[in-house]
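Hey, I'm writing a tutorial for new members on how sequence and structure tokens pair up, and I'd like a real worked example in the thread rather than a made-up one. If someone can provide the structure for the chain below, I'll link this post from the tutorial.
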Amino acid sequence: MKSFPAPISSDDLRATDIPLVFGSWSDIIEFAATFSPQAEFKEKMKPKGIAEIPVDSTVKEIRAALFHEYRRYNHYGFPPSEEVKQQCLQAIAVLRTKVK
């Protein structure tokens, strides 16, 4: 079984840390798992899904939403719809433009 990569703080995230190609939901969740909400947010926050984040979201907010979708569908035990996958890929594309 493949282990997930170590967490990367949003301040340390670089464009080179974001894969150029995501072939499957597993690839998306592997990247989403590099986010650690406990380390990023000092106060408990209500998680937002990928469809709930505004266009001008911060790097942390986008990563938190991706992490939330990863955990949500892990809990459900089935992969998300194609629409949710596409929203995640769009958010990752935006994320790539916000980091160096």
